[in-house]
Amino acid sequence: MTRGTDANLAFVFTTAARPADPHPGARPAPELDRYERLRRGRAGYLPDETSPASPDRAGQREPIAVLADILSRDGAELSASAIRQRNIANADHLAALHATWTAETTTARHDRYRDLVTAALPPGHRQPLSHQARWLYRTLHAAELAGLDPAEVTRAAIASRDLAGSRDIAAVLDARIRPRVDPLLPQRQGAWTGRVPRLPDPARHAYLARIAAMMDDRTRRLGQHTAEATPSWAVNALGPVPADSTARRQWEDKAASIAAYREMYGYDHPDDPISPEPAREAPDQRAGWHRAFAALGPAGQPGVRAMPDGQLWLARDTYAAETAWAPHHVGKELRLSRLGAFDAALAAIRADAETAAARKAGDHDCAARHETLAASYRALRDHYQQQEHDLTQDIAARQEWEHATERSRRLAIAADAELRRRYPGRKIEPLCSAEPGPASDTGCDPLQPAADGKPTDPAALIRDLAMQREQFRAEIDERPRLIVPGEDRGKAFRAMKTPDQDAILQPPKPEITPSARILQLAAEHDIEPEAGG
Question: Are 142 and 149 in contact (CB under 8 A)?
Answer without folding.
Answer: no
